[in-house]
Amino acid sequence: MRLTVTLDSDVVELLEQAARAGGRSKKHIVNEALRQLLTGIAAPVPEPAEPAPRPVFEPPAPRVADRSDQDALNAALAHYFGLPAPPPRLHLIKSER
């Protein structure tokens, strides 16, 4: 229901301060105050909802780079920056004879 009411300037100031401070509409504040005054019973104030817990991000365990990964990365960086390619690595394997 709509009702036009003329408020004193100091009441308007208080109403605007309460609306800003509580994050509620002026309509809600006026209804609550009139209900409380006329019935003597305070309207229940809803409790603010707690934010949902955020999931914890656990990064994957780092993988140890082997020699071929390092060689590939070096070659890619050399190519990107226009540098000469690094010389290939020679691996000697001792024979069991």
UniProtKB/TrEMBL annotation:
Residues 44-68 are annotated as: Disordered. Residues 1-38 form the Ribbon-helix-helix protein CopG domain. Pfam families: RHH_1. It comes from the Bacteria. One of its GO terms (biological process) is regulation of DNA-templated transcription. Residues 45-62 have a biased composition (Pro residues). This is Ribbon-helix-helix protein CopG domain-containing protein. It comes from Nocardia aurantia.
